[in-house]
Write a structure and sequence with these properties.
This protein has 399 residues and is an alpha/beta fold. Helices cover 33% and strands 22% of the residues.
């Protein structure tokens, strides 16, 4: 039996395309009719942007907030950004300080709503490369609007570099140019001034590798092969690395045009660097727990700054289900079951969509049902996830 799944549109691409389309001088329609909470938050906010409003509801979407704050500053527009869940507590530094240094006024850190006022000025913007690529992407979309040249200096190692490449890919489709320079201290992007966004009549959002990773891992640890279609095999999405990671664990993988098929496989533990792929952490944990041997997931400190502290959430969840996990400051050590089964149990969602997907797929290798409290958290990125599991008869033992 073969299970075939058409993957949802990329949430990361959708955020960027929707904002660039809103800034475009010509009408540009983003083809992404998918009702995840994060995408709907950005759609709502760009409508406010288009209509000249000030009150924006970001929900729990960090991308929506961090991308649009500098854009409103560049336009000299007051913005009142409402945030839900953990978002008001998630870091904004050093973006916060750089916006204030360059002419904007912001409400005190930690306040909700987050208010920005004043006009962003040109100059040099310094951002550490190991905190959040979203700060850099937001500035990349904002600075071309200014009336002078600007520069983004990324200091130190750039983590989640693929997300920056994704931003540049979308900007290029909207005729925005930049100059990249590699220096001894990091990477610099020079942004020419007074550029005009001019996009395609229709922008088709490609498939989401971050979501696909869970189905592909399900193919490796479950009983039926799973094919995920609608994927760009040459995508700049960093989470495309899941294919190589699966192969590293010994999974049998077949790539064909716009689809990837993964077969049930005997997995062997391996070490994985999470610095460029933090969103894959929960999916990789599934491979590690099913494999033979001890896997080390390292350089993942930034997982603690997501919708939940994902290192802690993964650890607690897998321990409840009967896995053997040791939590480190910046990673995890997981001793695999070597083809054995988790015991199942009642787990928490941690209000984190990717933790819920991990828990659901973990049910494929659980003796007893996995009961997920707060499973609706999955709607942040993938409403319909559980319907796909049911309709495709992915035999998860979910209570």
């Amino acid at each position: 039996m073969s299970i075939n799944i058409e993957i949802i549109p990329s949430k990361s691409y959708a955020h960027r395309a929707l904002i660039c389309a809103a800034l475009s001088k010509n009408k540009s329609r983003v083809i992404c009719d998918f009702p995840s909470k994060d995408i709907m938050a950005t759609k709502s906010c760009v409508e406010v942007l288009r209509k000249g409003g000030t009150l924006l509801d970001c929900g729990e979407s960090g991308s929506t907030l961090r991308f649009l704050l500098p854009v409103f500053g560049a336009l000299g527009r007051k913005g009142i950004f409402m945030a839900e869940g953990k978002l008001p507590q998630r870091p904004l530094s050093p973006l916060y300080e750089e916006l204030e240094k360059h002419g904007c006024r912001l409400s005190p850190k930690g306040e909700n709503p987050i208010v920005i006022d004043g006009k962003l000025t040109t100059g040099d913007f310094k951002i550490s490369g190991d905190i959040s690529s979203q700060y850099i992407s937001g500035l990349m979309m904002a600075l071309p609007l200014l009336e002078g040249n600007s520069k983004i200096e990324i200091e130190g190692k750039v983590e989640s570099a693929a997300y920056i490449e994704m931003t540049l890919d979308v900007l290029a489709k909207y005729d925005i140019v930049w100059i990249k320079k590699v220096t001894k201290s990091g990477v610099t992007y020079e942004i020419p001034y007074k550029q005009v966004f001019s996009g395609p009549e229709e922008f088709y959002v490609e498939g989401d590798w971050s979501a696909a990773a869970f189905w592909l891992c399900a193919g490796a640890i479950g009983r039926e092969k799973i094919t995920v279609s609608g994927l760009n095999l040459k995508s700049v999405q960093g989470d495309r690395q899941i294919v190589d990671i699966l192969k590293g664990y010994g999974a049998e993988v077949l790539e064909n045009e716009n689809a990837v098929t993964v077969f049930p496989s005997k997995l062997q533990a391996c070490d994985v660097d999470l610095s460029q792929i933090p969103d894959l952490g929960p999916a990789i944990a599934l491979l590690a727990v099913a494999a033979e041997g001890k896997s080390r997931l390292k350089n993942g400190a930034r997982l603690r700054l997501k919708e939940s502290d994902r290192l802690r959430a993964i650890t607690k969840t897998l321990k409840v289900l009967g896995g053997k996990v040791k939590e480190k400051k910046d990673g995890l050590i997981i001793k695999g079951l070597a083809g054995g089964m988790l015991r199942g149990g009642m787990v928490e969602s941690f209000n984190d969509h990717r933790i819920v997907m991990m828990e659901a797929v973990a049910s494929l290798i659980s003796d007893s049902p996995v009961v997920i409290n707060g499973r609706n958290a999955v709607n942040k990125s993938y409403p319909g996830f559980f319907e796909v599991m049911k309709n495709k008869k992915i035999d998860g033992n979910i209570g």
